[in-house]
Amino acid sequence: AVNHGWKDAYCNAEIYRAWRCLADLESRLHREEQRRRYRGLATRLKSAYARVLYNPQTGWIADWRSEDGHLHDYASPVASSMAVEYGLVDLEQGRKIVERLWDKMQAAGFRQYELGIPPNFEPIHRSDYLQPDGFGCPRHEDGTDTFQQYENGGISAGHSMHFLVASHLVGQGEKADGVLRAMLARQQGDGFQNGVQNLANKGIDWTTWDGKPCGYEGYLADVYYFLLAVLLREKS
User: Fold this and answer.
1) Cis amide leading into 118 (omega within 30)
2) Where are the alpha helices (DSSP H) in the chain?
3) Are 223 and 192 in contact (CB under 8 A)?
4) pLDDT for residue 134
5) Cβ distance 18 to 41 under 8 Å?
6) Which residue stretches of the chain have pLDDT < 50?
7) Of the candidates 18, 169, 168, 199, the residue with the CA atom closest to the CA atom of residue 90
8) Which phi and psi angles does 60 have, rounded to 5°?
């Protein structure tokens, strides 16, 4: 639903991790030439990642950079957290990035941790949304009229995992565990799905910041991705 053209922080983080995993696999197979190839690709990508996608004005990783050089930055904890989690930035820079995002979340007024963490803390402009009328697409260019609806700042719990794990890595584990405990408590009660819904804005697979349904399916299996944080917060 959200356009990410040219240099994309999310996809490049996943590509980096995939190349590192392939290098590890080739090492286990004792295929040195292939290992060097994937490790080299990962190293090249890492050397460019923060240089291209770090936004010095905000202090975190932007969502994407368009070909005209403009950074499209909606204060996404997902993109920045993956960069920290996968080692695309060093831990000191990662600590500053995560701290700034915690501060940004507080400034945005988000406290409903039982719902998970929003994918962005600022509205997405209409020109960066799926045209002509994607689900959650704003009418106003500044995106404020549908903010918190679907992928324009709405919450689907799965990718909260990255922010929780990144927080643990940089010494913010107590805050992260507070969110995780709140989410687990919700899972014990209402949960993160309400069956398969055949009406728009009835599913709780996505919610607004005050917990109102803004989903379209009702059940999304990837919502439960957040449970990986229970394991991945552990150093081992």
Assistant:
1) no
2) 9-28, 32-53, 77-85, 91-108, 160-169, 173-188, 228-232
3) yes
4) 85
5) no
6) none
7) 169
8) -145, 180
R_g (Cα) of the chain, nearest Å: 18
What pLDDT is stored for residue 225 in this prediction? Answer: 95
Say what the pLDDT of residue 61 is.
98
Tell me how crowded residue 27 is: count the other CB atoms within 10 A of its CB: 15
Residue 216: predicted pLDDT: 84
CA distance 212 to 201: 9
pLDDT at 235: 83
Q: Which two tokens stand for residue 177?
A: 């565990």
Q: What is the structure's pLDDT at 16?
A: 98
Distance CA 101, CA 95 (A): 10
| CB-count exposure of residue 231 (10 Å: 0-12, 13-18, 19+) | exposed
Strand partners, 60: 55
Alpha-carbon span 220 to 101, nearest angstrom: 26
Closest CA to 90 of 57, 47, 58: 47
CB-CB neighbours of 30 under 10 Å: 8
